[in-house]
Amino acid sequence: IINGIEIITSLKNIPNLIKEAKQKGHEYVVNMTPDEGKSGGGGSGGSRDESSFVRDDVPPKSGPGSAEHREERWNEYLAKGGAWPKERWDNVYNANMTKATNAHKAVDEYQKDIGWGTREVHLTDIDGKGTTRRLDIADKELLQGVEHKTGYQSATESNLSEVERDQILVEQGWDITWVFEQPPSKPLQNALNEAGIPIEIIGK
Predict the structure, then answer these.
(1) What is the pLDDT of residues 126-168, one digit of tens each?
(2) Residue at 149 is within a domain
(3) Per-residue DSSP letters for the chain?
(4) Could you list the residue range(s) of the whole structural domain that residue 158 is in?
C-alpha cells in the first residue's frame, strides 16, 4: 500500500516500488500472502504473482480524497452556511480532488525533468514573525525554489500572498522561479516582476 493506494504486484517488482516510494517521500506497507512468490502449481498465488496493477478506484485512507477528509470539508462547508445539497457538493469536491491530483503529477514530472530539489518543502518563520511558505520544489542548501502552477492563473488573493512571501525569500538570497503551463494574467506577471521573481512558461 503506497499513499493509501493498494498495489498488487509480483515479488520481483517490490524493491523497485519501495525505492520509488522512498524517493517521493511516500508512506508504504508491504503485505504478503502465504502463497506469495510460489510459482507454478496452477494455484491462485501463482497467477496473482504474474499480474501487476494499481487500484486507482480505491480512495486513500487519510488526507485529501479520503472519506475522513471529505467529511471534514463537508462539515466546514455547512458551518460556513453552505446551502448546496450533498450530491452537488460531492461533485465539486471530486472535481477539485482530480485537479489537485493532476497538478501534483505535473509537478512530479517537472521535478524529474530539472533533476534537482525536493518536493513539498516547508519553510517556517521566513520573516521572524512566524510566516511560513511551502514550495513545490526546493533545495534549501542552494537556496533555490520553484512554484509550479497548472491551469490559468490570475492575481488572486492566494497567489499574491505567495508572491509576497517569495519576495521575502528573494530578499534573503533565494532564487525563486514561478513555472506556468500557460501565460498568467498581466496583473500577476506585474506582481512577480516587481517582486524580482522570474517566470517560466513551459506550455503543453
Answers:
(1) 999 999 999 999 999 999 999 999 989 999 999 999 999 999 9
(2) yes
(3) -BTTB-EE--GGGHHHHHHHHHHHT--B-----TTTT--STT-HHHHHHT--EE-TTSPPSSSTTSHHHHHHHHHHHHHTT--S-HHHHHHHHHHHHHHHHHHHHHHHHHHHHHT-SEEEEEE--SSSSS--EEEEEEETTTTEEEEEE-S-----HHHHHHHHHHHHHHHTT-EEEEEESS---HHHHHHHHHTT--EEE---
(4) 116-203
* Per-residue pLDDT tens digits for 19-44: 666 666 665 555 554 444 444 444 43
Question: Is residue 42 a part of any domain in this protein?
Answer: no
Over 70: is that where the pLDDT of 173 sits? yes
Same domain flag for 93 and 163 = no
* pLDDT above 50 (res 94): yes
